[in-house]
Specification:
mainly alpha, 6 helices, about 55% helix, about 10% strand
Length: about 140
């Protein structure tokens, strides 16, 4: 958040001392290194996670409609209305780009072209859940 890699690394390492099996600080430290293009350091943290059995559970979002909880995980391709959701986001993305919106892809920490970075943002669990809710409220775009 503060773009201070040294401070973030120091804080993460202190948190590791408190709970070395919590995936949160490991993931944050990996992201800190990745955002600074310190790919070898990010890989070292991932290796430490693997060797010590620390698992990073994917984040999820959910929407309750008509007493049914619908759960979404980032990049989930198994949810039944997935294709409809994807098409809806494509329509929205085209419309908002035409009025000047540019997605902030600076926190997509993979080496990828701009289009792939934007696609990764579209597949966050929050966006999938929101699109599902909008589709079920019969909004049109």
């Amino acid at each position: 958040m503060h773009k201070n890699m040294d401070l973030g690394a120091y804080a993460a390492k202190r948190v590791f001392e408190l709970n070395p099996y919590d995936s949160g600080p490991h993931v944050l430290l990996t992201n800190i290194y990745a955002s600074a293009s310190k790919w070898s350091d990010a890989a070292k943290v991932r290796k430490i996670m693997n060797e010590s059995g620390v698992k990073n559970e994917p984040a999820c979002s959910w929407v309750e409609l008509e007493n049914v909880v619908n759960i979404f995980v980032a990049n989930d391709i198994t949810h039944p209305p997935r294709e409809v959701i994807r098409r809806m986001w494509e329509k929205i993305a085209d419309k908002i780009k035409k009025i000047g919106y540019v997605p902030d892809t600076t926190n997509v920490l993979w080496v990828a072209d701009q289009q792939e970075r934007e696609e990764r943002l579209q597949n966050h669990s929050e966006k999938l859940a929101l699109a599902f809710a909008l589709l079920n409220f019969n909004f049109s775009f």
